[in-house]
């Protein structure tokens, strides 16, 4: 957990100077169990929102994640 926190600090520090993918922040927060923060970091127009639950399955059941899915109005996957 300490390494994840250290990585977050490094990413936040470099964010002012260069682009840091929001999904990287989301993934680290999810791995720390910080699901609300992870969902907050998801890009609101994330076109791959339906498959993101395979990447971070623990987020698929959060209200914030479901709000993104509902807002995107993608059809349900067939599998």
Largest sheet: none
The proportion of residues in beta strands is under 5%
Number of strands: 0
Terminal Cα span: 33 Å
Low-confidence stretches: none
What global shape is seen? globular
Enumerate how many helices there are, as a single number: 5
- What is the overall pLDDT average? 79
Structural class: mainly alpha
Radius of gyration: 13 Å
Relative helix content: 55-70%
Written overview of the protein:
- 15% of the residues are buried.
- This protein starts with a helix and ends in a 7-residue tail after the last helix.
- Helix 1 (2-15) packs antiparallel against helix 2.
- It is mainly α and 79 residues long.
- The protein is globular and about 40 Å long.
- It has helices spanning 2-15, 22-31, 35-41, 49-55, 63-72.
- Helix content is 61%, strand content 0%.
- It contains five helices and no strands.
- The mean pLDDT is 79.
């Amino acid at each position: 957990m300490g390494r994840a926190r250290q990585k977050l600090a490094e990413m936040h520090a470099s964010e002012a100077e260069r682009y840091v993918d929001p999904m990287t922040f989301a993934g680290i927060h999810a791995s720390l169990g910080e699901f609300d923060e992870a969902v907050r970091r998801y890009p609101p127009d994330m076109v791959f929102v339906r498959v993101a639950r395979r990447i971070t399955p623990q987020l698929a059941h959060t209200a914030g994640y479901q709000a993104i899915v509902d807002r995107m109005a993608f059809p349900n996957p067939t599998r």
